[in-house]
Write a structure and sequence with these properties.
Length: 223
Amino acid sequence: MADAAASPHLQVRPDWLALTQEAVLEPELPIIDAHHHLWDRAGNRYLFEQWMADLSSGHRITETVFVQCRSMYRQEGPQAMQPVGEVEFVNGVAAQSASGLYGSVRACAAIVGFADLMLGADVQAVVEALQQAGNGRLRGIRNTTAWHADPSIRSNPQPPPPGLLAQDRFRTGARLLARYDLSLDVWAYHTQLDEVLALAQACPDTRLVLDHCGGPLGAGPYA
């Protein structure tokens, strides 16, 4: 899991972000931030302190949803169970926020974790471990699914094999999530939306959340 410590993203530039200040519309409107990450990577740190600083914009954020990003995996134990460390870490942040010492916002009130759905039916043990680690906050599972044949389109630092969403074992694992009332977050590019539709049809009892608005591409052949 050593490669999980690296970050493919540019460092945040506070001075550049400060060049434009926009007035907050409806500052009293309660907002749930439905998708954010926390990580500590080489040259790119975004943890509770940085997240709290971003709340100073004037919007009324009441709760947030953490979505998996390969953060704080366990370094010991079976590989399938190593992602449980991410939920353990985030649940600790949620408990820190729930103390009320940092204001009324409840960070990571819901958690989307990772369990390798290619385990098929065997993913059940991982899901149950994630639920225990989440202390009631686990709401869904997300896998690495964004893929494109063009190497110039590589926003995913760990690209999956092509056709993952159509694999029988993946779909078996996806169907199992319904048993635990968990959603399946899908990060896919717009070129994969037919695969997402086929997955939804094959797993009718599993709630699907389409991340990043279906991943419209503006690079490579779509520039």
